[in-house]
Amino acid sequence: MSTTKTSSKFLRSALAISALMAFGAVAQAATNEPMTTKVEKAEAKVEKAVSDSWITTKVKSEILANSASKAFKVSVTTKSGVVALKGKLPTQDAVDLVKMIAEKVKGVQSVDTSGLVIAG
């Protein structure tokens, strides 16, 4: 790559970074909220999303790892630590089992089984 092309790319990158920094400063001034507070709020949102994703994955894997429930087809979603289970299960005991499994996962606040239907 020629020196002119390299310099041009560097200049465009530097201008883009400067524009983003200026925009951030303007946005911060407009809201009167310290930049560290905004970063902390953003980090908290990311942590919550990662935590919910981890909980969903862990609940699914625990259901599959249990010899009594591994054949059950249960959909799992998590929002703010609340696990929602959906699917058709053969008995109320099966519903109770998957609920108990989900409740034992670290970070679970509560378990919603209203989406589970007894198909037996």
From TrEMBL:
Pfam families: BON. Residues 51-120 form the BON domain. Keywords: Signal. Residues 1-29 form the signal peptide. InterPro entries: BON_dom, Lipoprotein_DolP, Transpt-assoc_nodulatn_dom_bac. This is BON domain-containing protein. It comes from Rhodoferax saidenbachensis.
